[in-house]
Design goal:
Blueprint (H helix, E strand, L loop, with lengths): L6 E6 L4 H4 L13 H14 L6 E4 L3 H14 L3 E3 L16 H7 L1 H8 L13 H18 L4 E6 L1 H8 L7
Parallel strand pairs: 1-4, 2-3, 2-4
Length: 169
């Protein structure tokens, strides 16, 4: 049996306080800013006129808040999935690039080298993040054949699943 095309609408969460402060977020969380909520509301108004079958969100607060704003407008129920989370940046979460450069220079060197197997202290490697996101992706494509799925995710998910230069299998 041939499977039907599945359409994914990958949406990054709205702007957060840590985005503004240029802090690494990962599994850590900060709330959406007023601009981030405005972004989500504007998108929700547009999505009201777009057919999609399901709304799935990372279980992190910034993604869920974005998804909730969209769901209020579209009437969809939100399905949460922890596999859609951003990469776990472990000890770097909440820190700015400058602080990381000063206090975690060896870790930053590994990050800059894009070593797929380097595990951030108390975090995860690029490969682990990729495998977690892609496992979700492959399972969902199989389960959602012929449907349109809106995803509220993070920048790292988009890179892992849609950037062909990031192959970590």
């Amino acid at each position: 049996m041939e499977s039907q095309k599945t359409t994914l609408l990958a949406i990054r969460h709205g702007e957060t306080q840590w985005n503004v402060e240029e802090r690494f977020q990962g599994h850590g969380d900060s709330p959406l800013t007023s601009a981030g909520r405005d972004q989500a509301r504007a998108l929700a108004r547009r999505m009201k006129d777009i057919h999609f079958d399901s709304l799935i969100s990372s279980d992190l607060g910034r993604a869920l808040e974005t998804a909730s704003i969209i769901a209020e407008e579209t009437g969809h129920t939100i399905e949460k999935d922890a596999r859609l989370r951003e990469r776990n940046f472990g000890d770097l979460e909440g820190l700015t690039y400058n602080i990381i450069k000063e206090q975690h220079a060896p870790v930053l060197a590994h990050l800059d080298a894009n070593d797929p197997d380097y595990v951030i202290p108390n975090g995860e490697s690029l490969r682990q993040h990729y495998q977690r996101n892609v496992a979700w992706f492959e399972e969902r494509i199989e389960r959602s054949s012929g449907s349109t799925v809106a995803l509220i995710v993070h920048g790292g998910f988009s890179t892992a699943c849609f950037d062909s230069s990031q192959i970590y299998r």
